[in-house]
TrEMBL record:
One of its GO terms (cellular component) is respiratory chain complex IV. It is an enzyme of class 7 (translocase). Residues 8-265 form the Heme-copper oxidase subunit III family profile domain. This is cytochrome-c oxidase. Belongs to the cytochrome c oxidase subunit 3 family. Pfam families: COX3. PROSITE patterns: COX3 (PS50253). It is a multi-pass membrane protein.
Amino acid sequence: MSHAASARSHPFHIIDPSPWPVLGSLGVLVMAWGGVDYMHGETPFILLCGLGLVLLTMVLWWRDVIRESRIDRAHTPPVVTGLQMGMALFIGSEVMFFVAFFWAYFHNALHFSPVIGGVWPPAGIETAHAFGLPLANTLILVTSGLTLMWGKGGIALRQRWRLVAGLAASIALGLVFLGFQAWEYGLLTYSFREGIFPSTFYMATGFHGFHVFIGVCMLSVMLVRALLGHFDGPKHLGFQFAEWYWHFVDVVWIFLFVFLYWWVGL
């Protein structure tokens, strides 16, 4: 919890010591460790432990931020501006992950090496058909963004049912997307160990899938808050951040579809 608003002589929020940054970092470390082990044939136990710790940290951290806003009234206009800048920088940092993945992909796609047969994708790789499951997933994810925007209109019109319906539809579509992505992985004839194309493909699409999962978690929290009436008033910063994040994963997927599915199959 934070200091009482009455004790402040300035509009900024002085945050009390919090364990969540350290626990969250530890969770990411354990998850990365478990992920590497899983890629080398070990059980996913460590990976799932790390993921569980990350999710627990997210829930408890969001709980504290919600309390700071609704109980402590600590989200003054300067604080809101700072939070918006922080979220924008966070999404920008996530963009750079995908810049690195696309860089690796195009470096190999545009500079053929005799090691991979002088062609892209490498000889022997049968790529996924772009206008099958990938196109369906594209339509699903774009539709989820539209349903979220439609639901957002419920805030301005004070129609809680519309906000709840839009969030629920977007969550359901996000889960369908993840299910179709897993289905597609099961149909592919190559694993990530089989060369530069499979490794960049699985890393980029898998990392995006993880972002979709995190986005679904964020939208789920917003759905619970909408049901509790948290967005009936003028403040809806949490929803705004969830919306930014969801549109971010939408845009990234469009780039993935164009270059990792459609362009490579030409």
